[in-house]
Design goal:
The chain contains 18 helices and 25 strands. By secondary structure, it is α/β, with parallel strands linked by helices. The longest helix is centred in the N-terminal third of the chain and has 17 residues.
Length: 547
């Protein structure tokens, strides 16, 4: 829980605490008391204090906070008539546009739970999740109708359509057909259910109640976002990171700028033309933007952008340096997970000092490195990362949770603190392999390989080995001519010999999910057959331990 002094200082610096007229203050207080601090109450407070301010910009144009409030009232009435009530669940499968926000606010105003579906789900995966979570209704973009065809659903509403919807009900039709007057608040507040990434198995539902003011104070304590900014949220809204900034907009009154799909040049153009002061991205988006032709990059002016907030997957050190060298020291990297929220934040100063670090814990967050017995390890020693804050999730929707030790929850990763107090993440705790009796973390090898000037990106996985128990197979996307032997020599010059990968497979691209995380299970399954494989052992000594 953030102390009152810290809360006032952080929110004052962000411009949240400012003078309002007595009537506006009374209205805001009444809204929060009745509706809470989730999507229903958060966006309603914006309608109370700044009804004519532009709140959302997408391909269809602009909406003010007052318009969003009225639209969600109409949609909530329509959903209630279709059987949605308190305690029910409504699934939302939308890209980044106004329909996502309309649906979120409307469902929250009914006291129902919101289940955000990953727009990159395959049909069978989607059907499995819907069968398990059993939502009362699904609001989805027209493009996902085919994927939903196999699901047993009573009601659907189309959020975004590219043409005539035929007999299907559309969100815009419901908004225009129902009364937009204020509603009575429900007895319960909504829960937000965000699905885990599913990189190692079937995605799980991770519910979280209203975070309240502490969630914002935590982020703002190490990230200088300010009230009234224009923010381009390029990261998917269905993901923890994209949604976090939508929630921040409820407090900061940020104008949220959205585009349905990500295109690297369009993202830069949007930030420039929409006069954005901040951008919200995942690391692969930074990578794709920097991969544009230098002459194209030179046409964009991001001089207004003061914060580029990145999270969702590992940020390669070379990528952080390259971004700041090109666009200035505006990059903030956030480490966390769906279950533990924000564990640490690396400021531009942290990334300049040590671009391999994940920074330091924000206010109100405790991070400890524990051994297998649950004892805290000293700085410099690698162990399991445990996190404590007011944002931990409640356990998965259908049972189970992350391990908890003395109130701290496992992030699922391993890492260590350096002498400067910065956290370093070595990788997933279940990614570690034991090769010839030595512990090897794939991410350390990935970071080493990606530092080679002829390497674009890397993913390493453990595979069985008759001699060493396990060994590393590295998948490499090249940007120039380089051989597997040259890359092995590069690793050997920078890391211990037992960390040199036995196999290097050259591929055109790495498989990723919608939030940019590499799908290592696909690489492990198909690595023997994909790409151009070069597993020549070079000058490896027979008695050496090589991963």
């Amino acid at each position: 829980m953030a102390g009152a002094g810290t809360t006032v200082r952080v929110l004052g610096r962000a411009g949240v605490i400012r003078p309002y007229g007595p009537r506006t203050l009374v209205d805001i207080g009444r809204v929060v008391l009745r509706w809470g601090t989730g999507p229903a109450g958060g966006f309603a407070t914006l309608a109370a204090r700044s009804p004519h301010q532009v709140g959302v910009v997408d391909e269809l144009g602009e909406l003010t906070w007052g318009e969003l409030h009225r639209r969600s009232n109409s949609l909530a009435r329509a959903l209630a008539e279709r059987g949605v009530g308190e305690g029910d669940s409504v699934a939302v499968m939308c890209r980044n546009h106004r329909g996502f926000i309309d649906a979120s606010i409307a469902v929250a105003k009914l006291g129902a739970d919101i289940l955000y579906l990953n727009t990159a789900f395959a049909g069978p995966q989607l059907v499995d999740v819907l069968e398990r979570e059993a939502p009362r209704l699904v609001i989805h973009d027209e493009e996902f109708a085919g994927l939903l065809a196999g699901a047993d659903l009573d009601h659907r509403v189309l959020a975004w359509t590219d043409g005539e919807a035929g007999s299907e009900e559309t969100l815009e039709h419901l908004v225009s057909a129902y009364d937009e007057g204020d509603l009575q608040p429900p007895q319960r507040h909504t829960r937000i259910v965000i699905l885990t990434s599913g990189t190692t198995g079937t995605p799980k539902g991770a519910p979280r109640k209203e975070a309240g003011i502490d969630a914002a104070v935590s982020l703002l304590s190490r990230m200088p976002l300010r009230a009234g900014w224009r923010t381009h949220i390029a990261a998917p809204l269905f993901h923890t990171w994209g949604f976090a900034h939508l929630a921040l907009a409820m407090l900061l009154g940020s104008t949220v700028v959205l585009r349905r799909t990500f295109d690297p040049a369009e993202a830069l153009r949007t930030a420039q033309d929409e006069r954005c002061q901040s951008m919200v991205v995942i690391p692969v988006m930074l990578q794709r933007m920097l991969a544009l032709d230098p002459e194209v990059l030179d046409t964009f002016d991001l001089g207004r952008v003061e914060v580029v907030a990145s999270s969702g997957s590992a940020l390669p050190a070379t990528l952080a340096q390259a971004w700041m060298d090109r666009f200035g020291d505006n990059l903030y990297n956030i480490y966390g997970s769906t279950e533990v929220a924000y564990a640490s934040i690396a400021t531009p100063q942290d990334l300049r000092a040590d671009p391999t670090s994940a920074g330091k814990p924000p206010h109100g967050t405790v991070v400890k490195i524990l051994d297998e017995a649950g004892h805290e390890l000293p700085r410099g020693e690698t162990g399991r990362i445990f996190v404590g804050n007011g944002l931990l999730f409640e356990g998965y929707t259908h049972g189970g949770s992350k391990e908890v030790v003395d109130g701290l929850m496992s992030s699922g990763d391993v890492g260590y603190f350096d002498d400067a107090g910065r956290l370093h993440v070595a990788g997933r705790d279940d990614d570690m392999i034991v090769s010839g009796g030595e512990n090897v973390f794939p991410q350390e090898v990935e970071d080493c390989l990606v530092a080679h000037e002829q390497v674009h990106e890397v993913a390493a996985v453990g595979v069985d080995d008759e001699d060493y128990g396990q060994r590393l197979r590295a998948f490499v996307v090249r940007v120039g001519e380089v051989s597997a032997d040259e890359l092995r020599e590069h690793v050997k010059a920078n890391l211990a010999r037992f960390k040199v990968p036995r196999e290097i497979v050259f591929v055109d691209e790495l498989p990723r999910n919608a939030t940019g995380k590499v799908l290592k299970r696909e690489l492990a399954r198909h690595g023997e057959h994909d790409g151009e494989q070069d597993d020549h052992d070079g000058d490896d000594e027979k008695d050496g331990k090589q991963a």
